[in-house]
Design a protein that fits this description.
Length: 81
Amino acid sequence: MKYTIVNKETCIACGACNDVAPEIFGHDVKGNSHVILDNNQGTTAVPEKLYDDLEDAYEGCPSESIKIASEAFYGNAEKFD
Ligand code: SF4
């Protein structure tokens, strides 16, 4: 199982993750990225068919704001830092 969350404190709203993984990442009203699967709580397992997109977004994020873990984040993007 993989879970993901965006650290909105460091996201620079570049839009790259939304470009490569639109089924995972969207933008909130401030333009910051967020995980659309679970309103950026990191509690919904990412579907396996989206793992490649997730990896592309993770590797392409210029501010390392995308977090991935095998356990749920429960809204805390820095939980496993
Ligand atoms: Fe934010 Fe990173 Fe997504 Fe850019 S790629 S919008 S910095 S989370």
